[in-house]
Design a protein that fits this description.
3 domains
Length: about 425
Amino acid sequence: MLVRPGVYVGTYVFTDATIDIVGDCNIEINATTKAINKDPAIVFTNTSVPTTIDKWANGNKQINALNLVNVQSSTFFFKDCKISLRRISVYEKIIHHPIHAISCQNTDITLMQCAFYSKCSASFSCFERSKLNCKSCRSVGSFRGILTGNKSYASLTDCFISELTGIGVEATDETERISLKHCTITKCKKQGLAVYNGAEMAKIVDSHFEGNCILTPKEGSIQLKSCRALVKNTSVQNQDSIGIVIEGGSGNFHNVNIKNCPTGVLCQANVEIANCSISRCSNAGITICRHIKGSVILENNTITRCLMDIRRTDTSQMPVFKGLNRHVVITVPIMEVLEGATYENLRKSRRKNTGSLNIGPVGDVLEINKKAATICAHCGLCEFMVEDLKACGDCKMTYYCSLECQQKAWKFHKPHCKSYVKARRAYKKQQTK
C-alpha cells in the first residue's frame, strides 16, 4: 500500500493480516549513522495534539471502549500479523497513560527508514513471541525507545536513538535475543541499553553509546543483568555514569573503547574482557564487585589515565590475566560499607521523594520534574502511571507495581536483594562503632 505525504489521525488495529505500508516520499540517509536524517513526511498519529487519555477516548470514534482497554490505544496495534512499514513516521501523543506508538503481539514486523515517537511510554513495544527487524530508523525526544519481552526477538541495524527521557532500548521479561549492529544511542536520560529480568541474549556490535544515564549515574550506559552478552567493536564515551555494568549471567567484551567515564566496566559476573581500550576514567578502569558466580578474565587490554587500573573488593576473586599486559589491582576492604552507605542514602531519598528529576515536556505536564520517580523493576511502569509502588520487604531498594510482578522478578532479584541487605548491614554496623 503506497501512502501519500500527509498526517493520518486515528488508531489502526490489525489482527491475522499481512500488511505492507510504504511512504511515497524522499528520505535522506546520514552518512555516519546510516539512519534517516529526519522524520518522513507521512505521519500516522493517534491524535494530532498532546491530550489526556480521557479526552482522546471521548472524542475518538474509530475504536470502542473494549478495544481501548485491549490495545491501549496505540497508533498501530498488530496481533498475529506479518507487517512491513517503510518510510513513515508513527507518533503517540497521549499523556497520563503507558501507551506505545507501535504495539506488536506474536507478529513478524520489519521497519525500514521509519521514525517513531511516544509521549509517555515506549515508542515501540514487541511482545508475545514477536520478531522485530528494524533498519535505518530513528527515535528522537521520546519517553522511551524500544521495549521487548515475552519470548520476543529484536534486531536493530543502523538505527539512531537520541535525547530520550528514559531508556533507549530495553529488553526484559524473557526476551529471547536483542541484537544491535551499527546503532547510535546518545543523550538518553537513563540507560542507552538495558537487558534484565530474564532476557536471555544480548549482542552489541559496531555500535556507539555517548552521553547517556544523565539521571542515573550509578547505572551503566550498557546495563546487563542475568543474561549472556557479547559486546564487540563498540564505543562508550563521555558518560557521567559507568560505561558497562554486568550483573549475573556472563559476558564477552572484545575491542571495546571506553573513554571519559567514572568507571569503565563494573563486573559482578563471569566475564572475559579482551583487546579493549579503557581511558580517562575518574575512578577505576575496571571494578570487580562481590561475585555471584564466575571469574574475570583480562587479555591484552589497555588501561590508561585512570585513577585506578583495577579495583576489587576483598571478598571478590582476583582477575585472571592472559597475554602480555598486566595491570595494577587495588583491593578495597571497605567497599561493602561504601556500597551500603550509597544504598541507604538512595533508599531514604526515595522514601522522602527528594532528589531531582527533569523529564522535559512530560514532566512539565505531570508536574513531576522536582520529584525522584521510581519504576516497577519488572514491567517498567512509572510510579505516576500506577496508583502505588511497593518496595521489596527485605532490601527496600527495588519497587514493584503488584505482587504478580514481584513474584515473576524474584528469581532475578534474589541475589541482588541479598547483596543490598548485606551491604546495608555492614554500613549500619560501621555506624554504630
